[in-house]
Design brief:
6 helices; five-stranded mixed β-sheet; disordered C terminus; alpha/beta
């Protein structure tokens, strides 16, 4: 029996985590790993202890900020990084697996925290209908390795 490689395991876990999201707009999952070990996980949604958007606002979701983004939500990669730091795990030199490429603000956090590689499944630019994945361009410009995960996974339609 062939053993799956860690990229497959971690991306499949990120896809599964995305299904935990309470966001009605988009489900995103993230896994932070280092030396073949998981150091943290996350998915997008409101901070713990606040509203679950799909339960509190099932029709329209949470309110939007001035740029049209969710006013409550933390992104999956933010949740994974914050949880790791809260629990005193070092993310320096780690790899982030995420189902949606990081936006520019998340890319800044990823770079600032010393994460050395990002593996993503879907393009943020395609999802948002913009011309370029600004977050990926930022990461590449400043030396963070970026890799588009190309394998086919069995995933839920809500993640596409």
């Amino acid at each position: 029996m062939a053993k799956p490689d860690f990229d497959d395991i971690f991306m499949e876990l990120a896809v599964s985590l995305a299904q935990r999201s309470h966001c009605i707009k988009k489900h995103v999952g993230a896994v932070l790993s280092k030396d073949t070990r998981i150091i943290s996980i996350g998915y997008n949604g409101p901070p713990s202890g606040t509203h679950n958007c799909d339960e509190e606002f099932p029709e329209e979701g949470c309110s939007r900020d001035s740029k049209g983004s969710c006013s409550l939500a933390l992104h999956a990669e933010q949740n994974a990084i914050l949880y790791a730091v809260k629990n005193k795990a070092s993310v320096d030199g780690s790899t982030l697996y995420v189902t949606l490429a990081p936006c520019l603000p998340c890319a800044r956090i990823i770079y600032s925290m010393g994460i050395s590689k990002v593996v993503y499944l879907y393009s943020y630019a395609d999802y948002k209908g913009i011309g370029i994945d600004e977050g990926l361009a930022f990461l590449e410009k400043f030396g963070v390795k970026v890799e588009h995960y190309q394998k086919v996974l069995q995933i839920s339609d809500s993640l596409v």
